[in-house]
């Protein structure tokens, strides 16, 4: 009995110590790096861009950081295809929600504790699926429509979203399609997708069903799969002839890694070597060397922030995305 009580006491003390550590780290990050007045000012300036009331400094910190491209640095075949985007209401709503959720202290403590316990056994993606956190944002409905050059009432037959995650980004596109198909590796994420009534296909069968899709989305998957070139070839064969389109988002600079069980990362078997240091250089390299060699033609390209819900350390996370609309040459 005494030994059991001793083990219980040690466990309780460990949990309390862990929570105290997380709280101290949260104070350090939120007090010094995240929630300071300057960070709030930057976000406020970004929200005010559409109202044209921001200062020049606010514009540089906001629009320039996330959306601006220098078209003169793009290749001749690409520069005329660039679409300028900006912080819109859909993106602002996601940021506000993420900031609010990062302030739910007890929820964040619980999620951080669970993540620490299970991360040696389960992938981070699956943990996020179980906890209902870490939702992603690529584009708003208006940005999606501008990319495809469609109106809000436009409808097509079939959408396939590869690596759909929890389905948050899929939902933006799904309203334009009568049937939505998805693929996903993580079982908890698959459960989320099934609850949204999407048809889940196996990661090795979606290109073997004989079905042709009017739009295939491959969002931030190219740098997280073992065989990116094979993936693009299978997509090409699965598009509806002539009118089919691929929406491809790639985080730049291009740094390919594949997540394995235990939250570890390893290099993919097949590596795409994208030359250039600037965002514009890598966009041109992808367009001229990778896509053209596979028989794709760029129809449109834009720069968007790839956003992820935050945690107790940061309000949100952001990476630089290049989002392409491709058609078969």
From TrEMBL:
The chain crosses the membrane at residues 9-29. Coiled coil: none annotated. Gene3D superfamilies: Vaccinia Virus protein VP39 (3.40.50.150). The keyword Transmembrane helix applies. One of its GO terms (molecular function) is protein-L-histidine N-pros-methyltransferase activity. Keywords: Membrane, Transmembrane, Transmembrane helix. This is Methyltransferase 9, His-X-His N1-histidine. It comes from Tetraodon nigroviridis.
